[in-house]
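Hi Prof. W.,

I finally got the Glycosyltransferase prediction working! I wasn't sure whether to trim anything, so I left the full sequence exactly as given:
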Amino acid sequence: MTALFVDDRYRGAHGIGRYAREVLGRLDVPWRDLGLDGTPYAPLDAFRRVPGPGAADVVYSPGYGALLRAPRQVLTVHDLIQLQTAWPGRAKFLAYYNGPVRRVVRRAGVVLTVSETSAEAIRAWLRDDSVRVVNAGNGCSAAFTPDGPREAASDPYVLFVGNTRAHKNLDVVLRAAAVAPGIRVRTVVPAAEAAEVRRLAAARGVAERVEVTTGVDDARLAELYRGAVATVMPSLLEGFGLPALESVASGTPVIHWSGCRAVAEIVAGRGWAVSDAHDAHEWAAAMTEAARSSRTVAAPSDAYDWDRTARVVSETLSDVLG
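And this is what came out:
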């Protein structure tokens, strides 16, 4: 009998980690943990032995880590942002995606993703109409609602939730803070990046108005969203944009770059769209306007639902299992 194995190494305090935690806990299809060690993002992980699955079995990964020695593997490719990073760093991602990832996806005949923006990018990259690209969407934790406690702050603050990778574009927010002296910046980042955020803030002369938070659960994060005058999401590229969804679900508007399609789709007018991703003065003006307006926004419809996402993933895996 065909069995489903899951590469359960993705859970964590980040976008893919949250996706893995929410979806795997809701799968309708019985599954077994592959029991692999290490990280699925290690350069040579694609070539490791995969003990357990038989020739007819299926492996599911809630991330993009390809396992070439698995019989069949269904991936969730959240986005292709790594293929748009600067040279020469892009070269290693091109080799990985055009080699192990493309081979695994074509062998499975299906790949999952989280937004229509990412689905379009994956179809263009694959150039293979025989592969079905399934947009399973993304969900939003029940903790993110307008009702509930909010962070108390003596000064208005904007909230940044993300990391220090170049495409997240945190620097423009720090430069904006330098010309918007009445606004504080609260950041929620991985613990390993806290020191880097503090270094960047000091370099921009705003260290005293930038606070770094790590390791928060959903309830605490929701408090921070509710207390903010706006969430800032200056990303240049996103496959989905979960902080934008969590923010508007909490009633807090989002300041974002209009050219980032995935985020603009989620925000849908619930905030301020900045026309220039790198213009600190334009970002500062939006942050100041947010502080003056004390605006709240309506939560989106129930289209962003973890139960629905897990159901689509389950149905797709059931089809592959046969």
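Residues 47 and 63 are 16 Å apart (CA to CA). Does that look reasonable to you?

Thanks,
D.
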